[in-house]
Write a structure and sequence with these properties.
Number of helices of chain B: 20
Number of domains of chain C: 1
Distance between the termini of chain C: 47 Å
Chains: A mainly alpha, B mainly alpha, C mainly alpha
Helix content of chain B: over 70%
Shape of chain C: globular
Low-confidence stretches of chain C: none
Strand content of chain B: under 5%
Radius of gyration of chain B: 21 Å
Mean pLDDT of chain B: 90
Largest interface: A-B, 43 and 50 residues
Order of helices and strands of chain C: HHHHHHHHHHH
Strand order of the largest sheet of chain B: 1-2
Number of domains of chain B: 1
Oligomer: heterotrimer
Structural class of chain C: mainly alpha
Mean pLDDT of chain C: 89
Distance between the termini of chain B: 26 Å
Largest sheet of chain C: none
Radius of gyration of chain C: 19 Å
Structural class of chain B: mainly alpha
Number of strands of chain C: 0
Order of helices and strands of chain B: HHEEHHHHHHHHHHHHHHHHHH
Shape of chain B: globular
Strand content of chain C: under 5%
Low-confidence stretches of chain B: none
C-alpha cells in the first residue's frame, strides 16, 4: 500500500511537470506547481507514517504549507499585481519541448538504476522521477522567457532535489531542513520583489529583453 | 558567550543598526566600528586556533580548523576594508545627491549582513549549515547589485539570482547525495552532515552516489565561485554593484565559495582518492583561465575587466588544487591570501575612477586618467601590476609555486596551456589598464569629471595598497602558519 | 449457433441497451453539476431523455443537395458506437463480444463512426459542416494514436490486447500500481476531454461558429437524425469513462453473474463513473476554452504522456 501511494504521488509529480511544459497559461502553471508540491508533501507524509519517523511530518507540513499554498499564493498575487497573465511564450513549441522532456525522463530513469536504492522497486521510481523532474526543470529554465516561469522552473528543480532527498536518504537532519525551507521562501520573496521591479521598469516580464549586458 | 558566536553576532548587530534609520555619522561609525571589531574577533579566533585549540560550537556545526581560520581572517580583513571604503563611497554619492534614505539604509544594512554571511560560510563545519550560509550570501548581495536601480542592474541581479539559485539547487542536490552515500555509517541527527564525520566514513561510501554528489556540489559551489562555464553572472554583477560590495564579492565570496569547493574536494579525496575531484577542478580551473583571455582582450568596461580577472584568479586556485600535489595546494592557498590583499586595491581605485566619471565604461571614462585622478590611476596601475602576477609581488610567487608543481608532476601539458593563458592575460590587462591610464585624453568640451579628493575612500585604497606591497616582502608569521595549517587540512593531515 | 455464442449475444444486447439507457443521464448530470458550480439551478436530471424523445418524435428534414451519405452518417455513427459498447467490460470482468477483438477493434470501430459522421457533414456542402469535419479530423489525427498508446500501456501490464482478458487479469492481480498507470490515465483523460467535445477543447453548450467542432458537424441535422447523433455521442462519452475506470481502478467488478456481485458491481461502476464525471465537470468549470490552434498542443501533451507511459514500463 505504502509503495503504491508513493509511486502514485511520484508519477503524479511527473505528470504535473509534463502539463507545465505542455501548456501556456500562467495561472495554471502556478497551480500545477502547487499540486506538485502537495504531492511531494504527501510522499513525505506517507514515508513518515510507514516508517513512523515523526520528524518527517514536519517536513511534510512545511512542504504543503510553504510550497503548495504560500508560494503559489504569493506568485499569483505577484502576477495579479503586475497584470500580465497572458500566455507563457517558450522558445520552443510544445511538441518539440515534450519530445525533449521524454528523452530527459528516459535519461533520468536510466541514471536512477545506478543508485544503491534505485535499482528496482519504489526507490527506482522515486529517484527516476526525481531526476527526470530535475532535468525537466532545467529544460524549462532555458526554454521559457517569462520571469515567473523561470521562478517556477527553479522551484521545480528544488522539488526534484527534495524528492531525491526523500528517495535516497532517510531524511536530512530536521534543523537543516528547516533552514533550507526558510531560505527557499526567502529566495522566492526576493525573486518576487525583483520581478515586480523588472516589470515596473520594462513593463514586461519577458526576460529575453534583459540582454544589454554582453561580453 | 562563545567566541565564534560573538564573531557572527557583531556583524549581524551592525547590520541591524545600519538597516534602521538614524543620523549618518552614527551609521558610519557603527559600520566601521562593527566591522573593525569583527576583524578583531576573527583574528582572535585564528589566534585561538594557532594556540592549539579548535574552537567549535553547536555539536561541531561551527568549527574552525586551519582552512576555516585562514578564510575567516581574510574575509574579516576585506570586510573591514570594504566598510571603510563604503563610508567614503556613499559620502561621495551623497554629495552629488544620488542617495535616497532607503538606499542608505539598504547599504549600511546589507554590507555588514553580507560580511556576516561570509563569516558564517567560513566557519561552518556542516554541509547543511554551509548551504544555508551560502544561500544567505546570495540573498544579501542581490539588493546590493540592484543598488543603483538602473535597467542594467536589474538585469544583472536577475542573472545573478537565477544562476546563483540554480547553482545552489545543484549544491543542495550534491549535499543530499553526499549524505545519502554515507548513510549506512552515519548516525541520526545534525552531526551526520559534519565534514569531520563524512571524512571519517568516506571510505565506505557508495561510489556512484558519491561521485554524482561531488559533481553536483562542485558545479553548484563553482557557480558561486564563478568558475567557467558558470561564470556569466560575474561580469554583470561586478559592473552594477557598488564598489564596496564588489570587493566583498570578489574576495570574500570568492574565498568562501573556494572554501566550500575545498571541503567537497576533501570528502571526495578521502573516499575516491585524489584523482576524481582534482581532475574536475583542474578542468574547470583551466577553462576559467582560458575563458578570461578573449573577454579581457575585447573588454569595454573597467569593472567587468576586473571581474574577468577574478574569474582568472579563481581558475588559478582551482588549478593549484587540481594538480593533486601538496605544493599546488599550498600555492593555491597562498594565491588566495595574496589575491585577497591585492584585489581590493584594484577594485577601490577602479571604483573611484568609475565614480568620478559616473560610469565604469571605457568609453565614458576616456583615456589619460593619470592627469585627472593621479592617486587612483597610480593605484590602479600598481594593482594591475600585482594582480597580473608580476615580480616581485606576492601573486608572482604563488603562481610560480603552482607552475613548478605542475611541471614537476604529471600535468605538464595542462600546465603549459595554463602558463600560456597567464601570459596572454598579463598582456591583455596591461593593454587595457594602460589605455585607461595613459591613453589619449578625451577631447576638450566633453563633460568634465569630478576632481579627485583625498577622502576616507582614497585613504582606505592607499592603506590597502601599502599592505599589498608590503606583503610581497613580509608576510606575518602567524599568517604563514595559518596557510600551512590550511594546506595540511586540504592535504588530509588535520 | 452454440450456447455460448447465444449467451454472448444476449449479454451484448443487454449491455448495449443498458449503456444506451444510462448515457443521457450522464450528459445531463454533468450539465447539472456545472450549473450548480455556477450557482444556477440547471436542467432536471431527466432532461436528456426528454430531449431525445422530443427529437425522435419530429420529422426528419433534409437539404435538397444531400445524398444518401447524409442520411447514412448518423445511422452508421450510432451503429458503430453501439457496437463498440459490446467490446468493453462494464459490470462483469468480461466483454460480451470479446472473442471478436480487443483494443484495436474498439479504436477502429470508433474511427469508422467518426469517419461516417465527418463525411456526412461534408455531404451537404454547408461551410459549417466542412469546418467541423476538418477540425474534428485534425484533433482525431493526434488523439487516436494517443488513445491507442494509452491503452497499450495498460495492456502491457498484463500482456494482452483483449479488453475482457485484460480487466479479468487486472482484477485477479489486485492493485499494483506503476507510474505508467497514472501517466496513461492522465493521457487518456485528456483524450476523453478532447473526444467528447468538452472545454477546453470544444464547448458543448454553445453554437458559436468560430469555436464549435462537434456541433458544427451536427448542425445540418434535425429530428431523429440529430437524436441519433446526440445519443451516440453520449454513449461514446460513457463508454470512454467506463473504459478509464475499469482499466485504472478495477475495484468492485463482478467476476461471475451472481446477482449480489452484479448489484455491487453496478453500484461501484456508477460511483466511479460519477467521480470521473465530477472531475470532467471541474475541468470544464475551471478552464477557459483554448484557441483552436492550441488544441493540438494539448492533445500532443496527452500523446507525450501516453508514450511515456509505454516507455516507462521498459525503464
Amino acid at each position: 500500500m505504502t509503495a503504491n501511494v508513493l509511486i502514485l504521488c511520484a508519477a503524479g509529480m511527473l505528470v504535473t511537470a509534463y502539463l507545465m511544459v505542455g501548456q501556456k497559461a500562467l495561472f495554471t502553471t502556478i497551480r500545477l506547481y502547487g499540486l506538485q508540491s502537495f504531492l511531494l508533501g504527501l510522499v513525505a507524509a506517507t514515508i513518515a507514517i510507514a516508517e513512523s519517523r515523526h520528524e518527517l511530518f514536519i517536513t511534510a507540513a512545511l512542504t504543503v504549507v510553504l510550497k503548495a499554498i504560500l508560494i503559489p499564493w504569493f506568485l499569483m498575487r505577484t502576477v495579479d499585481r503586475i497584470g500580465i497573465h497572458r500566455e507563457v511564450e517558450p522558445f520552443l513549441n510544445v511538441p518539440a519541448s515534450l519530445l525533449i522532456c521524454l528523452g530527459l525522463t528516459v535519461v533520468g530513469y536510466r541514471v536512477s538504476t545506478a543508485f544503491q536504492e534505485g535499482a528496482r522497486g519504489v526507490g527506482h521510481h522515486l529517484i527516476g522521477v526525481a531526476l527526470s523532474l530535475l532535468l525537466i526543470g532545467l529544460f524549462m529554465m532555458v526554454s521559457r522567457k517569462k520571469a515567473i516561469t523561470q521562478i517556477l522552473a527553479l522551484l521545480t528543480v528544488e522539488n526534484a532535489v527534495f524528492l531525491v532527498a526523500v528517495g535516497v536518504t532517510s531524511g536530512m537532519p530536521l534543523i537543516v531542513e528547516l533552514g533550507i525551507s526558510f531560505d527557499v521562501i526567502l529566495a522566492v520573496l526576493v525573486l518576487g520583489v525583483l520581478v515586480q521591479r523588472i516589470v515596473g521598469r520594462f513593463e514586461s516580464m519577458d526576460i529575453s529583453r534583459l540582454s544589454k549586458l554582453k561580453g | 558567550m562563545d567566541l565564534l558566536l560573538w564573531t557572527l553576532t557583531v556583524p549581524l548587530l551592525t547590520a541591524g543598526v545600519g538597516g534602521l534609520g538614524g543620523p549618518r555619522a552614527v551609521k558610519e561609525l557603527t559600520m566601521v566600528g562593527g566591522l573593525a571589531l569583527t576583524f578583531g574577533l576573527c583574528l582572535a579566533v585564528a589566534g585561538q586556533f594557532l594556540a592549539g585549540s579548535t574552537p567549535a560550537t553547536f555539536d561541531d556545526a561551527l568549527r574552525v580548523d586551519g582552512l576555516s581560520a585562514l578564510v575567516l581572517v581574510l574575509c574579516g580583513f576585506v570586510g573591514l576594508l570594504s566598510g571603510c571604503y563604503g563610508v567614503g563611497y556613499l559620502r561621495r554619492n551623497e554629495r552629488r545627491g544620488l542617495v535616497t534614505p532607503r538606499q542608505r539604509r539598504e547599504f549600511y544594512g546589507l554590507i555588514p549582513a553580507y560580511v556576516f554571511a561570509m563569516l558564517f560560510v567560513a566557519m561552518s563545519n556542516n554541509l547543511g549549515v554551509l548551504w544555508i550560509a551560502v544561500e544567505l550570501t546570495t540573498l544579501a548581495s542581490v539588493f546590493l547589485i540592484t543598488f543603483h536601480n538602473r535597467d542594467t542592474s536589474l538585469e544583472a541581479a536577475w542573472k545573478f539570482l537565477m544562476l546563483g539559485s540554480l547553482g545552489l539547487a545543484f549544491a543542495l542536490l550534491g549535499t543530499v547525495l553526499l549524505f545519502a552515500a554515507g548513510q549506512g555509517a552515519l548516525e541520526e541527527g545534525m552531526s551526520a552532515l559534519n565534514w569531520t564525520r563524512l571524512v571519517e566514513v568516506a571510505p565506505g561510501m557508495h561510489p556512484f552516489t558519491l561521485r554524482l554528489g561531488v559533481v553536483f556540489a562542485l558545479i553548484g559551489y563553482g557557480t558561486k565561485a564563478g568558475l567557467a562555464p558558470m561564470h556569466t553572472w560575474k561580469p554583470d554583477a561586478y559592473r552594477e554593484a557598488p564598489s564596496p560590495a564588489v570587493v566583498l564579492m570578489a574576495v570574500g565570496m570568492l574565498n568562501g565559495a573556494m572554501y566550500c569547493i575545498l571541503r567537497i574536494h576533501l570528502v571526495s579525496t578521502a573516499a575516491l582518492g585524489p584523482d576524481f575531484s582534482a581532475g574536475l577542478l583542474l578542468t574547470l580551473g583551466l577553462l576559467s583561465v582560458l575563458v578570461a583571455v578573449p573577454f579581457i582582450l575585447i573588454q569595454w568596461n573597467l569593472k567587468r575587466l576586473l571581474a574577468y580577472s577574478s574569474i582568472e584568479h579563481v581558475g588559478i586556485m582551482a588549478v593549484g588544487v587540481g594538480l593533486g600535489v601538496e605544493a599546488g595546494v599550498f600555492g593555491a592557498l597562498l594565491h588566495m591570501t595574496y589575491h585577497s590583499l591585492a584585489k581590493p586595491v584594484a577594485l577601490f581605485s577602479a571604483g573611484t575612477l568609475a565614480q568620478l566619471h559616473s560610469s565604469s565604461d571605457f568609453g565614458e571614462i576616456g583615456g589619460g586618467t593619470l592627469g585627472r585622478a593621479p592617486v587612483s590611476s597610480a593605484l590602479l596601475v600598481l594593482s594591475a601590476v600585482i594582480i597580473t602576477g608580476s615580480p616581485p609581488f606576492g601573486l608572482f610567487f604563488s603562481e610560480m609555486i603552482i607552475l613548478r608543481a605542475g611541471f614537476a608532476g604529471t600535468h605538464a601539458i595542462a600546465t603549459s596551456v595554463f602558463l600560456a593563458a597567464l601570459v596572454a592575460l598579463f598582456c591583455g590587462i596591461a593593454f587595457q589598464i594602460g589605455r585607461v591610464v595613459a591613453g589619449p585624453p578625451p577631447a576638450p568640451g566633453t563633460k568634465a569629471p569630478d576632481p579627485e579628493r583625498f577622502d576616507i575612500a582614497l585613504a582606505t585604497a592607499s592603506v590597502a595598497a601599502v599592505l599589498a606591497v608590503v606583503s610581497a616582502f613580509y608576510l606575518p608569521g602567524p599568517l604563514v602558519a595559518l596557510i600551512r595549517a590550511a594546506t595540511a587540512v586540504v592535504w588530509g593531515r588535520p | 449457433m452454440s450456447v455460448e455464442a447465444l449467451l454472448a449475444l444476449v449479454a451484448a444486447l443487454l449491455q448495449a441497451g443498458g449503456m444506451l439507457a444510462a448515457a443521457p443521464l450522464l450528459r445531463t448530470g454533468i450539465k447539472k453539476m456545472k450549473a450548480r458550480l455556477q450557482n444556477r439551478q440547471g436542467p432536471p436530471l431527466l432532461q436528456g431523455y426528454y430531449d431525445l424523445a422530443k427529437l425522435l418524435g419530429k420529422e426528419s428534414v433534409q437539404s435538397e443537395t444531400a445524398s444518401w451519405v447524409y442520411a447514412a452518417g448518423p445511422r452508421a455513427y450510432f451503429a458503430t458506437v453501439v457496437a463498440a459498447t459490446t467490446l468493453v467490460p462494464v459490470l462483469v470482468a468480461a466483454a460480451p463480444l470479446e472473442a471478436t477483438g480487443g483494443i484495436l477493434l474498439l479504436v477502429g470501430t470508433l474511427a469508422l463512426g467518426r469517419f461516417a459522421l465527418a463525411t456526412a457533414a461534408l455531404d451537404t456542402g454547408s461551410p459549417f459542416g466542412g469546418m467541423g469535419s476538418s477540425r474534428d479530423m485534425t484533433i482525431a489525427a493526434l488523439a487516436e494514436p494517443a488513445l491507442m498508446l494509452g491503452l497499450f500501456a495498460s495492456a502491457l501490464s498484463v500482456g494482452t490486447m483483449n479488453l475482457g482478458v485484460l480487466v479479468r487479469d487486472l482484477v485477479q492481480q489486485g492493485p499494483s500500481w506503476h507510474p505508467s498507470d497514472l501517466l496513461a490515465f492522465a493521457g487518456l483523460f485528456i483524450i476523453v476531454i478532447a473526444e467528447t467535445g468538452r472545454i477546453p477543447v470544444d464547448n458543448p453548450a454553445t453554437h458559436l461558429e468560430l469555436t464549435m467542432i462537434h456541433e458544427a458537424m451536427a448542425l445540418e441535422y434535425a429530428g431523429p437524425d440529430l437524436a441519433l447523433v446526440e445519443w451516440a455521442s453520449a454513449v461514446k462519452e460513457l463508454l470512454y469513462l467506463t473504459l478509464l475506470v475499469n482499466l485504472f481502478l478495477p475495484v468492485g467488478i463482478a467476476t461471475g453473474f451472481a446477482p449480489g456481485a452484479l448489484l455491487v458491481a453496478l453500484g461501484a461502476w456508477a460511483g466511479k463513473v460519477f467521480l470521473l464525471a465530477v472531475a470532467v465537470t471541474l475541468v470544464e468549470s475551471t478552464n477557459a476554452k483554448l484557441r483552436l490552434f492550441r488544441v493540438p498542443e494539448l492533445v500532443s501533451v496527452s500523446l507525450g504522456l501516453a508514450f511515456l507511459a509505454l516507455a516507462i514500463r521498459f525503464l
